[in-house]
Structures are given as C-alpha cells and as structure tokens.
Design goal:
heterodimer; A: about 300 residues; mainly alpha; MetI-like fold; 2 domains; about 75% helix; B: about 425 residues; D-Maltodextrin-Binding Protein, domain 2; three-stranded antiparallel beta sheet; 16 strands; globular
Chain lengths: ~300, ~425
C-alpha cells in the first residue's frame, strides 16, 4: 500500500464513524417511522396492522392537529422575520462600536447558551399575573392595565415567540457580525470616496453582501421555530400547549400522541407531515435566495 | 487428580444450585422518597421471613414512569410486581400486561372483608381481580388559620357547606385598587385536584350522577342540575373572583406561600406543607351542599405482570400479600401519609387531627373509572377554560365535555 492509499484508507475509516452513526441513529429511525405511519402501532398493543392512509386521514380530521399546524406556521411567520430583522439591525449598530464590542457580544449570546428549560421557567414567572409577575407589576407601576399574557388564548403564542426571539437573537447577532466583518474594507472605502452616504453604504453594499449569511439564518431559524417544543412544554400549564391548545406546536402534538396516548402510528404520520413542511419551506427559501446570492 | 477435579466440579454444582434456589423478583415503582424507603424496609422484613426469595426494587422518576411502563409492555420485559395508578389499570389490563390474581389467595370475600368497597370495584375487570393496594387517598379542605384570624374569622371554624365556603372566601380575598387579586380566598385550580372535585363531588351535590354503574355512559350532563355544576364553579372565578387557575402558578404554591386561604388537596400534601415554616393550617372534611357529602378517592396499586411465571409467580404472590398486609398499611400511613386501604385499620385513626378528615371522607368516597386518565382530565379542564376565556355558556361547555368523554369511553369499550 502506498502512502497515498494509506492516507485515503485512514480518512475513510475516520469518516465511517459519523456515517455509521448517521445511518443507525438518524436515518434508519426516520425511515422506520415513515413506515410506521402507515400502521396502527400502539405501544400497548401486541400486533401491528397495516392501515394505509388511515392515520393521515385521522390527523387531518383532528381539529387539534389542524390548530397545531397553524400554530407552527404562526410561530415561523412571526418569529423568524422578527429575530432576523432585529439581529441584523443590532449587528449593524454593533459593528460601529470598536471598544467594548466583545462585552456586548458576550451579553447578547448569554441567553442562547442558557438551558432552554431554565429560560422558559424564568419567563413563565415573569409573565405571571399579580402579585408575582414582573411585567404585570411594571404595567401597574406605569398606571396601565394588567395583561393575562400566558393565560390568554390570544396572547400566549406571542409571549412564547418573544421568549424564543430573545434566545435566538444573540446567536444571530454573532453570526451577522462575523458576516459583516468579512466584507472587504476596500468596497466600503471606494464607496466612501465616491461620496456614498452611510445609509446607501449599508443598504447597497453591506446588506446585499450579507445575503448568504441571511439565507443561512433564515433557513436555520425557520427550522428552529418549526421544531419549537421545550418553550411551549414548560410555559403552558402542565405542558399541554394551552390555554385551549392556542400555543400547541406540531412537535408537542406529536409528543402527546406518542408518549401520552402511546399511539405511535398517528404520531409517526404527524412527524412525516412536519418533515414534509420543513423540507418544503427550506427548498422554497433556497430557491428565493439562491438566484440572488452573489458577490 | 481426577478425583479432585470431580470433587471440585461437584462442589461448584452444589454451590450454583444453592444460589439459584433463591428466587429473585423485581418490583417497580416511581421515585417518591418516603415510598421508596418504606418499600425497602418492607423488603428487608419480607426477606427475613422468606430467606429463599430476593426482591429488587427499581424506581423511575414520576414524570416518565408511565412511558417507561408502556415501553416495557411490547418488549415483554419489566418487573414481576409493579406499582400503578388505579386509573391506568384498564389500559394495562386491556393490553394483556397484567395477570389475574389467583382466586384462592385473592377471593371476592378477601377483597370485601379487607378493603374499602371502591377499591374492590376499581381493581375488578370482567369479575377478575388484577391488583391490590396498600394505601388510598381522599380529598379534604385545607385552611390557613393565620389568614382566617387576619380577616376576623374564627381560625378554628372552617366552612361546613359550599355556601359558607364561598362567603368566607369572599371575606378572605384581597385585591388592589384596580381589582386585581392579591390574596385568594379559595384556590381555583382545575388541573390540581379540582377536576376530581367537580366530577365526583360537585356533580353529586347538585343531584347528579357522574357515570352509569357499568362505567360506559357519561351522565353528568344529563342528571341532576347538570349545567349548574360548571356554572357554580366558573362563577367563583369570573363573578366572585375568589381565585383563578394559575394564581401564583398553582394551588400548592399559593397555599404554601400563604397567599391562598383555603384549598382542596390530598393527604399526600401534608408532608410538603409541614416543611413550610410558620404555616398554621387545619384540615376539614370537604364542604357539603344540599345535605350531600361526597369525596373522590384514588390509589396506587400493586399488580403482577405476565412476566412472573413459575417460582417467580409464587414469590410475587407472597410479596404482594406481604406489602398489602395490615402491618404494611400502618407503616405506610406513618411513613408516607397515605391512608390504609383496610377500613378496620383506617377507623383506628378517624379522630387523628391530620388524617381524620381524610379518613371520614373515605366512607362516602367514589373512585372514577378512567379509560384514559389524561384525556378525561383534559375535557374538564378545557370546559372550564372555554367558559372563563371564551365566554362559552357553562351548560354548553359541560355538554361538549361530556360528549368528548363519552367518545373516549366508547373507543375504550369498543377496543375491548
């Protein structure tokens, strides 16, 4: 064996480990679950029967599933743009600061590295009604009416969006900032020499050149909001996704079907639907952004 | 040389035989410190009496105990003796995971002589017995003596009727200048014990019957004053404002932090409350209404799974008998705070200051039949939310809940 061959073999051996892991821990269960979505598999039943598209008909006629589907869409529609816009703005501003930029970066990224369960419970307590909740106490101090927040079917979802944005924001700022700092200084200098205003430089040079980074964040954040689970599980009473299912995302619906009702067949079919939605949205975003990604 | 080898082999065989003559059985329950300690103590005594049996206790966190049990069903693994909530029994009996208790050891007479009637009814399926409990639980009214005193009420006189309870709760509730509740007169927490209270207590006090005797029909929307029940309950939240779901996060926190004057809870909460400094509380029987007393009883119960066969089955039966014996019940009351499942033992403590009101409640308690414990709880919670958040008419919401629950029961009985 030549040295070159040896190197190749070594490389493949090392690469095989993650591939085996991927096949058995990720890919196989995924395919298995897809197959199971066509059966009536229930953890407590001994035999499994093929039921065709029965489970899919079941979930689409279940009003709770339809609600959770729309909730998931609301999470992504409100959450993803909000976090992208806010963090882009903050990154642009932060780029102007030179002296203690590291401190800001550190502070912003703190929520992201805090365990989600802890974040959810702290926010849950802050949203509490009087006499406990910080927000309601602040509203009273300002002479305004108290708000029900998490106990209102119309506000609860947005309360969870805000918490999630707060968490994801730090991560997005850091990524955006890194992106801004890779933009060659010459472009900006040339623009300044040509007499471009600050606004024009930002809108015509910085933001367009950030497109690949934005694409990356839009895709990952959208998936993040679609897979929302921990926040809702911890911020709604007894993890139900309430009040009245108003905060229940698809992931929580799947969890309830699988691990409370032990109805694995139905849970698998709902997971497959979620999988298709994530795939569709990702392709759509790649399409929209791809044509315009350029340097 | 050969002889020596043969002798050694002989010794080895004898040794393994003597070791394997010891039967090992496995017992599962969820992790609750006092329960785990008590079972360990019982195991020690049991092994002393039965030196040929070894019992291993395995515990899991409460949060995923049911998942763990369910996952072990299809795999055919798991314990020989298992501790389950009585409300899960129908599900596990249906799945074929539990085996019928032998009639010679656990006869109908044995149950009728040694257990409360609701226990006998809840562990029987198709006239076969599947499990037997050590202890049972009921509900009672907890009141905060200090808050009673502050409000000018007699701290030694808890309310006796629902009407009295509401009147007192109004006096005990405190608000800010805008009418926001700062101290609850009564906790209104449906996802605590209140959904049981509504189903088995309020429905009966308003002249209704929650379910048919064969547990196949939901009747709470069709008997007695039906819609009035939910209206009475939700009016306390929306009109009287003596408390609301989620006040100080939950009822236990509110009562512990002395921000709620009265609450309804089980005897298992005594241990938690006793750890709170300067909380002076009393326990009374649930308030009556229209001269009717009722209570909700529940229990965790021990069953033998289909894994236990042959010698392990014999050992499991012996162990089951031992942990549900009269001595075990007394030990359980002392250590865990759950009430003896045997009326004879229970009566000994009926004048006890803490446990007395719970034990009196046992005499008129009912245990709901649960085909799907979580599902059936959720329909009641949803009905309450619909009334207080969406202004749905209480009788309509109650009817919808009953219809949904009927579907759960129908599905269960159809699958049988």
């Amino acid at each position: 064996m030549t040295l070159k061959q040896k190197k190749v073999v070594t490389a493949y051996t090392f690469l095989a480990v993650p591939i085996v892991f991927f096949l058995f821990v990720r890919f196989f269960p995924m395919v298995y679950s897809m197959a199971m979505s066509f059966t009536d598999w229930n953890l407590l039943k001994k035999n499994i029967n093929f039921v065709g598209l029965n489970n899919y008909m079941k979930i689409f006629s279940d009003p709770v599933f339809v609600t959770s589907l729309f909730n998931s869409l609301k999470y992504i529609l409100f959450g993803a743009p909000l976090v992208i816009i806010i963090s882009l703005l903050m990154a642009l501003l932060l780029n102007k600061i030179r002296k203690i930029q590291w401190l800001y970066r550190l502070l912003y990224v703190m929520p992201y590295i805090t365990p989600m369960v802890a974040v959810s419970w702290v926010w849950r307590w802050m949203y509490q009604p009087l006499p406990l909740g910080v927000f309601n106490n602040a509203l009273v101090a300002l002479g305004m009416d108290v708000q029900p927040f998490l106990s209102s079917p119309s506000q609860a979802l947005f309360c969870i969006v805000v918490t999630t944005v707060w968490v994801e924001f730090g991560y997005c700022v850091v990524i955006f900032l890194a992106g801004i700092q890779t933009i060659p200084e010459e472009y900006l200098e040339a623009a300044r020499i040509d007499g471009a205003s600050r606004w024009n430089i930002t809108m015509k040079i910085t933001v367009p050149l950030l497109r690949p980074i934005t694409l990356f964040l839009v895709v990952t954040e959208s998936i993040q909001f679609l897979r929302l689970f921990t926040q809702v599980y911890n911020m709604s009473f007894q993890g139900t996704g309430g009040p009245l299912d108003s905060t229940k995302p698809m992931a929580l619906y799947i969890y309830h079907k699988a691990f409370v009702n032990f109805d694995m067949g139905v849970a698998s079919s709902a997971s497959f639907v979620l999988f298709l939605i994530i795939m569709f949205i990702t392709f759509l975003q790649l399409r929209v952004f791809k044509d315009k990604v350029s340097y | 040389m050969k002889r020596v080898t043969l002798f050694l082999i002989f010794v080895c065989v004898l040794f393994t035989l003597s070791v394997s003559a010891k039967t090992t059985i496995v017992y599962w329950q969820y992790f609750y410190q006092t329960k785990v300690d008590t079972i360990n103590q019982l195991i020690k005594e049991f092994e002393k009496l039965n030196p040929d049996i070894e019992v291993k206790q395995v515990t899991f966190p409460y949060e995923n105990y049911n998942q763990k049990v369910a996952a072990s069903v299809p795999a055919g693994i798991g314990p020989d003796v298992i501790n389950l909530f009585y409300g899960w029994l129908p599900m596990y009996v249906n799945s074929g995971y539990l085996q019928e208790l032998p009639k010679n050891e656990f006869s109908e007479k044995y149950f009728k002589d040694n257990f409360f009637p609701f226990v006998e009814e809840s562990v029987k399926f198709n006239s076969k017995y599947y499990s037997v409990p050590t202890a049972v639980r009921t509900l009672a009214l907890f009141w905060n003596k200090k808050l009673f005193k502050q409000a000018g009420l007699d701290p030694e006189k808890p309310p006796k009727t629902l009407t009295e309870a509401v009147e007192m709760a109004k006096i005990l509730s405190k608000y800010d200048s805008k009418g926001n509740l700062l101290q609850a007169g009564f906790t209104m927490q449906p996802d605590g014990q209140h959904h049981h209270w509504i189903r088995e207590v309020l429905v009966r006090q308003f002249g209704g019957t929650p379910y048919s005797t064969d547990n196949k029909k939901v009747l709470y929307d069709k008997t007695g004053a039906a819609g009035e029940v939910l209206k009475w309950y939700t009016d306390r939240i929306t009109k009287d404002k003596i408390g609301y779901p989620g006040f100080l996060n939950d009822d236990v926190t509110a009562f512990k932090s002395q921000k709620a004057a009265m609450t309804i809870d089980g005897s298992f909460r005594i241990g938690t409350l006793n750890t709170v400094k300067d909380l002076e509380y009393g326990i009374a029987e649930l308030p009556e209404h229209n001269g009717i007393k009722s209570n909700f009883a529940s229990f965790w119960t021990h069953a033998i799974t289909t894994n236990a066969q042959g010698e392990r089955l014999t050992a499991s039966i012996k162990f089951l008998k031992f942990i549900t014996s009269k001595q075990a019940m007394e030990l359980w009351l002392k250590n865990v705070g759950e009430l003896p499942a045997n009326p004879e033992i229970a009566n000994k403590y009926s004048e006890d200051k803490l446990y007395g009101p719970f034990l009196k409640g046992l005499a008129y308690a009912h245990a709901t039949f649960f085909a799907d414990e979580v599902g059936q709880r959720n329909v009641i919670l949803e009905a309450i939310d619909k009334v207080r958040l969406n202004n749905t008419d209480p009788s309509v919401a109650f009817k919808e809940a009953a219809d949904k629950e009927q579907k759960i029961l129908d599905d269960f009985w159809a699958a049988k």
